[in-house]
Amino acid sequence: MTSDEPSNESRPPCQQAARGFWSEAWRRFRSRKLSMAALGFVLFLVLVATFAPAIAGTKPVICRYKGTIYVPCLAYFDRTLEPVIFAKDKFRGTYPANLAEKDPESWAIWPLVFQDPYRSVRDNEWPGEPANPARDQGAPSSRNLFGTDQYGVDVFAKMVHGTTVALLVGFVSMGLAGTIGITIGATAGYCGGWVDMLASRLIEVVMCIPTLVLILALVAFVDKPSIWKTMAIIGLTGWTGIARLARAEFLRLRSSEFVMAARAAGAGPLRIMARHILPNALAPVLVPITFGIASAILIESSLSFLGFGPPPPSVSWGSLLNDARSNLQMWWLVVFPGVAIFLTVLSYNLVGEGLQEATDPRLREARK
Amino acid sequence: MPTSPPSDEPLLSIDRLVTAFHTQAGRVPAVDGVSLSVAKGRTLGLVGESGCGKSVTAMSILGLVASPGRIESGSIRLATDGEPVELVGMPERRLRQIRGGKVGMIFQEPMTSLNPVFTIGDQVAEAVRLHRRVSRAEARARALEMLRLVRIGDPEQRIDEYPHQLSGGMRQRVMIAMALACEPSLVIADEPTTALDVTIQAQILELLSDLRQRLGTAILLITHDLGVVAETCDDVAVMYAGKIVEQASADELFANPLHPYTIGLLAARPESARSGAGQRLTTIPGAVPPPQHFPSGCRFHPRCSYLKEPRCSAEMPELREITPGHFVRCHEAGQLEASC
């Protein structure tokens, strides 16, 4: 009777193509224009951060010098990547004149904007161009798009190179917070009992610590403050919300039927947590991570604004704001970094909200 | 009714199993001294109303009783490779090899028993890879073979679909494929057809008995539906309030029910001969008492229509063998008029 399955049992008519949960969520996310624009802006920032030395800098992107091809712009990522030959030939960081003078055969591809994030461009460094204006003379112009600070350093170049810090702070600290939060939340939710008790109290204790004050205390304590230490502190204190959500999800899914089925099939606890529950719990947990990235960027900016940011060689948007504090008549030092921080935080919040809408099962059911 | 040669050697034997939950209200014995045995390749139906301890018995076999509950005494022995091993008190690591490997489990709710984020092929393949050292490709091939075995149409395409794309009956077939993937010698089916509509129920039951005959798997079928038992089971055990009240072969039980509870259950079936067209269905008055409020004496006595005081409310009857192979827990068994 049942040797050939009747087709009416087999396929609900509403679903034709094979669609997983994530492709379904992506489809819903895409339909939200604002969230897509925000995601686009974040991707744009990633591109800017990746190609920062090619956008603004005083070192050639690629050049040919004495018969060899070099990529001097990598020095902006790590100073040791600068080819030794330029130091030996006494370039002293000034490429255009030196290249032409010491090897007439040489050629170079230059960054889009010839400005340095760490120093002022000197007179005639780029043939025919005057030095950057300093003090309060550096209002935005065609040469200095976002103006210059009181030392004549180009604000546009600083901001382009500061994008890396803004993005890294978000991703690294929330990557750390996410790992800690999911691990602790998952263990608490899945094991229950005294483990849950202990983890929940730990979450509450950490939650009570005001992050900014802790960071200020630690910065005062640590010998060599660096951007990585700031990220670590933000990550180590910012996992509580993630842990709470992960705990709730694991608690809910632990007693679900498919977990019972997996246990009855002989799966061990680690396997059940990582393979069966985590993919189901990930969507709600991703949302606070996205919002967390936004708040991590804000925390870093606040720290830099207060002067506890990364030490001078690295630039961040917040430290630009700090410079503006004593030069309030130079409005461009406030407006451009401020707008950049605002847009970035707004974008992450919009992405998070879109993610929430796209993955929340209740909202999803309501749409159907 | 399917028949298979009776085998003397039991595959699973449960002896005086007690599983109790320790709640704030005190100790709650959900399973109270249950003894059962399932022979190789046979189907035992475990019947009873909701809340009488059927599912807890099944979970006890797999060592999956949830936290406030635990097995307090008794023994569960499973013959693996001819050698009976004790499952009660077995370390978790070895129990995991039993689960899925030697004993498969089919759940009541096919809608929620499959993980929504994985394709059905992945889930069947995982069941294989949990117990066998095979490559991904081999596991997938085995999954395909299993899907074909449980008669899922177009398995090459279906293997990459997600549970939400399948109907309830299809999902239950996938669950059966998962339970049978490692060729267990016993399958516990906990109300496998309750959540399905009647036509699909019949297909699933037929599939189960067909697979049992083909693979030689014994089945412990837990159900509250005597119709299902009549169609599929060789032997029947009737459970009431944590205890077995009657046990016999299916033919014997349906022809000659001896316990008042069984008689009541049979009479309450719509297809029962006594309630012809136009007649009201007979019911058993009352409900199964919750374990913390089990009555004294025979636990069925407050609902029994053959009540003989004071003995029934004072003394717990023993499970007695009335005719060969037919066990009943009733003081009056054998003396009852078979009509009511």
Describe it for me?
The complex is a heterodimer of chains A (368) and B (340). With 368 residues, chain A is mainly α. Chain A has helices at 21-30, 33-50, 52-55, 84-88, 96-102, 155-191, 193-208, 211-221, 227-237, 240-254, 257-264, 269-305, 317-325, 332-359, 361-367, and strands at 62-65, 68-70, 107-109. In chain A, strands 2-1-3 form a three-stranded antiparallel sheet, with no helix packed on it. In chain A, β1 (62-65) and β2 (68-70) form a beta hairpin. Chain A is elongated. Mean pLDDT of chain A is 82; it is low at 1-18. Mean pLDDT of chain B is 85; it is low at 1-7. In chain B, α6 packs parallel to α7 (198-215). The radius of gyration of chain B is 21 Å and the shape is globular. In chain B, the strands form two sheets. Chain B has an eight-stranded mixed sheet, sandwiched between helices. Chain B has 340 residues and is of the alpha/beta class. In chain B, a hairpin with a 2-residue loop joins β1 (10-23) and β2 (26-39).
